[in-house]
């Protein structure tokens, strides 16, 4: 697959990942190389990665963090910053983030802030990170259960998408990443959406092509609006309510935490319903989108008490301004609309639609 140029970096695929990564190291000659992994990628991805890494006698240090969204925190950042300092990392050191979205988001933030910024490279190992978290330069961590409240936009030096790492993923993680691919179709390309909702016509050999297409869509959006002043906001479709649901399930001990994509799938159904009320989306498209998402994602019970708490969390959404919650909704598949204001009563209606 041909490499994709982003605004400040390049996304390389499969065998090209290691050719370009090793060329980068030979050319830039970092003072030290640090590889950030979590407990899962340490066991399942790191050995293969280190076999392909040519460090030219540059010292390589591995730093391991716990896996899971609950560890995407300032406390973990502090531990990584301290480890970098203890290992005498300087501004010419290189940080390689080998992992899913938690590792790439947190590692990118650590690199962007350590000594006011050191170079970093993302090697995403989950489907979610490949199609979403590793592209576009968004880095950051959660503030308690509130998603991505602290961070910066700063692209890495390159991105390496080696789809063979997907062989290490459990099924639920693959499904989680698929939500972002569905979103890319809904906000940008109806033909892509139609392909994704008819997977029975495809086989596993088509996966690389679909991942590539998702990255192309995301890159086209973020390249035109790198700082999220306008068009890039469309990538938040399903995320206004979805992030609130994810946060609520994460912070409540009596709930089973949802993976990011599981929460976003619910958010997309709810926000599709809202789209029929304020943007003129047809009921036919509502049914098509709902059924398309529920082909892959199981329903989750969200009772009335949960709904009110989730609505309360909407005030923390990063698209808000002047105390007003703003949604990205759909006028049609592939035609999003920005900055929609929705009443709480309509949101409760959307929850009723999802439940029934």
From TrEMBL:
Cofactor entry: NAD(+); Co(2+)
3-dehydroquinate synthase C-terminal domain location: 177-320
Enzyme Commission number(s) from the entry: 4.2.3.4
Domain 3-dehydroquinate synthase N-terminal: from-to ranges: 63-175
Protein name from the UniProt record: 3-dehydroquinate synthase
Pfam families, alphabetized: DHQ_synthase, DHQS_C
Function according to Swiss-Prot or TrEMBL: Catalyzes the conversion of 3-deoxy-D-arabino-heptulosonate 7-phosphate (DAHP) to dehydroquinate (DHQ).
Enzyme class: lyase
Entry keyword annotation includes Kinase: no
Keywords assigned: Cobalt, Lyase, Metal-binding, NAD, Nucleotide-binding, Zinc
GO molecular function: 3-dehydroquinate synthase activity
